[in-house]
Description:
It is built from 14 helices and twelve strands. The chain is of the alpha/beta class. α2 crosses α5.
Amino acid sequence: MLKIIDMIFGCLAVRILSIFSPVQSDHGVVSSILIIRPGGIGDAVHLLPAVQLLKKRFPNIAIDILAERRNSSIFALSPLLRSVMNYDVPHEFLSVFRKEYDVVIDTEQWHRLSAVVARLTKAATLIGFATNERSRLLSFPIPYSHDDYEVVSFLRLLEPLGINSPQHIETAWLEVPSAAAARATELLRPLNSGKFVAIFPGASIPERRWGVDRFRTLAQRLTDEGVPVVVIGGMEDAREGEAIVRGLPAALNLAAKTSLLESAAVVDRCAVLVSGDSGILHIGVGLGRPTVSLFGSGIARKWAPRGADHIVIDRHLNCSPCTQFGYTPRCPINARCMAEILPDEVFTATVSLLNLKTPQLPNYLLDIAGRH
């Protein structure tokens, strides 16, 4: 429905505004910036290195975020923002137009309506991705590619402000609030152990789920080695979490027992995070935690973690990745790309990051780890 609304009303609004509201480009002194970030958790996490770089270049700048309720809590993991407002809270959305901004950066990759919102702010400089008609509303339309790591794509939006992408991206860019950290300490007390593996079995779509039985086998193998396991997730993951840890020693099911920020605090304490392509995975990367990630429909070259502390398992089937601009078609072969990932190889990858022992990784895992 959103895509249809955007196609009809977004295209019409672009035509009208591009005729009656000419594009500007001179931002002059930059003292305030609005960053528009609708969408999911992963986009929000990958945007924050750009926020860090902005504050480094302009230490006194005020940065506001226009997000959605489904991703806005992520921005509590950054102390660099002045305020966070939500598209889907009317009075917060309207407050954007009562403020003055020197620059608006629209980080939406495809939909046109966010570019319309950017233009309606009347900021002198509008920066965003040139993926369709939306480019007509921007002072600086920036190319977007599915071949680029998403963090790098967002960093490129800073180039019109004279900020070039760094050679190396920080290994950690999120910061857990103290209240969430204290809650994690309380929840993890039953483990009585400093080292544990966090498992997130959830996913936003069925095509990205690995399956409760496989996660259960992985948890069994880890606890047999004396490694505690903690399952995290939302209400929708509670039953799977219980099935994964049932009867296992030193295993906790915290699914549905934590807020998103508290889940982040738990991840911040783990030795390794195991997850499919998910918002929780990206939070783990942003916190600097080692990860084993399972990719299939998602575009690994854009979304998979980078660095020696991350092992990405991807079967690279002919039909994958099949996701584009956040849309994944229904899979006619029951997500074979995920089903063919075996618990033994995920266990081997996890143990290698734990440094419990030094098992020989399969050749394709070594190849994947080297590339990322």
